[in-house]
Structure formats: structure tokens, C-alpha cells
Specification:
Elements: H1 13-33, E1 37-42, E2 51-58, E3 64-71, E4 75-83, H2 90-103, E5 108-111, E6 117-124, H3 130-155, H4 157-160
Antiparallel strand pairs: 1-2, 2-3, 3-4, 4-6, 5-6
Helix pairs in contact: 2-3
């Protein structure tokens, strides 16, 4: 069920709390029914205008990743750390990620602190539904699974081919 709110205005306190509870309920259900979700913690730094969750997701290519969701007054932001910046084959590495980025939907590869690679995305808070949360989780999981090993093999090639 989608909340009916004015997209041009920040969420009212009650709307924000309803969305926070919707996300909490969705995570509770997923912890029981979805084998890729290992754990979820609410960030103690959360406030009335920003609520943060840290969800550990299990993978096959990458053992686990931390998916961070941050509900703010107008948007739900999400991100996960993919891998460190490359040690070698820099141009091939970044070319691979840029070409891969073009095929991603709902998430974007980007450079973060210390040249680390992250997957990020955001949706308007007014569009948060259980189905949209499912899509975010699935999209992030798939992108990590698809990009992690090939990226490592290019950016850390000597560790794979001594």
C-alpha cells in the first residue's frame, strides 16, 4: 500500500513514522522468508528526520555485503560497498565498471572514499512499497553478484594469476 502524500513537500512526522514502520515490518518478514538476508540492525544514530538500517545480505560470488538504507524526508537512499579501488589495470577496471553501469537499472556504480566502488540508488519516499523494497534488495544483490568477481579479476589480476 502506498501513502498518499504531496511529493513536493517533506514527509509529515506521521508519514515518516508510517514509512519507517513499513520498512521495519518488511525487514521482519524478509528475515523469516528470504535466505539472502542474514541480519538487519537499525542505526542508533537515526533521528526524526533520518532513519538508517544496515542489512547484511549473503551472496555466492561475494560472501556478504552490507546494504545500508537511509529514509530521509523526501527520499529513501540505499548503498552497498562493492570492492576496494583497483591496484592494477586501472583503465580496464574503470572501463569495465562504466560499461557495466550502463546495463544496471535502479542502482549505479560509483567511486567512494579511497577510490572504493559502491552501488548506490534512491527512490522518492512516496513510492516505498513492499514490492519496491523487494526490487531494491534484488537489484543490489544481483549487481554485487554480477560485478564483484569480474571487477576483482581485472583490478587485482596478479592475485588471481600469479
Amino acid at each position: 500500500m502506498q501513502l498518499i502524500v504531496n511529493e513536493n513537500l517533506p514527509l509529515a512526522d506521521t508519514e515518516f513514522q508510517q514509512l519507517r514502520e513499513r520498512i521495519n515490518n518488511w525487514f521482519r518478514d524478509q528475515l523469516v522468508s528470504n535466505s539472502i538476508l542474514a541480519s538487519v540492525e537499525e542505526d542508533p544514530e537515526s533521528s526524526k528526520t533520518q532513519h538508517i538500517w544496515h542489512a547484511r545480505i549473503l551472496g555466492e560470488e561475494k560472501e556478504s555485503s552490507m546494504l545500508n538504507l537511509s529514509l530521509k524526508q523526501r527520499m529513501l537512499h540505499y548503498e552497498t560497498y562493492l570492492m576496494p579501488g583497483p591496484e592494477e589495470n586501472l583503465s580496464d577496471f574503470w572501463e569495465y565498471l562504466l560499461r557495466r553501469n550502463r546495463r544496471l537499472i535502479g542502482v549505479t556504480l560509483c567511486i567512494g572514499e579511497e577510490n572504493a566502488v559502491y552501488l548506490i540508488g534512491a527512490i522518492p519516499a512516496t513510492t516505498i512499497t513492499e514490492e519496491e523494497l523487494d526490487r531494491i534488495l534484488g537489484t543490489c544483490w544481483t549487481a554485487v553478484e554480477d560485478c564483484f568477481k569480474p571487477g576483482l579479476k581485472i583490478g587485482f589480476a596478479s592475485q588471481f594469476n600469479p
